[in-house]
Amino acid sequence: MEGFKRPIHIGVSAQDIGRYVFLPGSVERVDKIAKFLTDAKSVARHREFYTCTGTLEGVPVSVMSTGIGGPSTSIVMEELFSLGVHTMVRLGSCASTSPQSCLGDVIIPKGAVKMEGTSTQYLPVEFPAVPSYELLKVFSKAAKDIGYPYNTGITITKDSYYTEVTPHTKPVAPLLEYQWEAYRKSGATNTSMECAPIFCIGAMLGIRTASVMICATNFNDYSNDDKDYPRDWEYRAIEVGIEGMRRVIKDDLKKGGVL
């Protein structure tokens, strides 16, 4: 593969990856997702960016970890786009902010609150953070057909994990608590740390994006103990993500789209 362009952060070339990519935050989640691909192999591991590539429906598909939060996710998206990737789907986890989202639910957000700074480096603050409508429909249908409970409510994307978990300990606690309550009353059902940048950067680049997550908590019932994290539930989101991507690829093949 010598001579091929390799962006400095993700450490892969266009020959290493598919044009369809799953974006988990966690390095450990990459192998879990890759098991659902055919003949998946590790192709790179650099910094927090671990990449495996296999196939779905005979078409190359990759999985690349982004690390936590918008800044590192934006690097991944920019560098993957420079290599020709046109479809990026986050596969991860989130926490409930509403009784409408329960432990084990598959979350496929139709939009994101921009409680973060990365997206504003790309687009005006007024620009909405929304996934590709085409993918939203496909992944929602996949969840329904598989039979898992799912929710398509608004997700809250924040920059700081612990300003959500323990806002009362922060000097700006009144502001944080007011914002979270306002978002909840406005219908936000869950929160994570990457969706808004993914949706906004995808819009800026003109590519397709979506997010499929597993809800790891019940509303107002959070534990910060690793033993309470429901890792076995992750496969629900992965199965929906794989099935949804399979349908996207099949549809692209029918249309003669670029793969």
Residue runs with pLDDT of under 50 for 5 or more positions: none
Number of strands: 11
Count structural domains: 1
List the secondary-structure elements in sequence, H or E.
EHEEEHEEEHEEHHEHEH
CATH topology: Rossmann fold
Return the CATH class.
Alpha Beta
Helix share bin: 25-40%
The chain-level mean pLDDT equals: 93
- Into which percentage range does the β-strand content fall? 15-25%
Structural class, from helix and strand content?
alpha/beta
Fourth CATH level, the homologous superfamily: Nucleoside phosphorylase domain
Tell me which CATH architecture applies here: 3-Layer(aba) Sandwich
SSE topology:
Elements: E1 20-23, H1 27-34, E2 38-46, E3 49-56, E4 59-64, H2 70-82, E5 87-96, E6 106-107, E7 112-115, H3 133-146, E8 150-151, E9 154-158, H4 162-165, H5 173-185, E10 188-192, H6 195-205, E11 208-215, H7 234-255
Parallel strand pairs: 1-4, 1-5, 5-11, 6-8, 7-9, 9-10
Antiparallel strand pairs: 2-3, 3-4, 5-10, 6-11
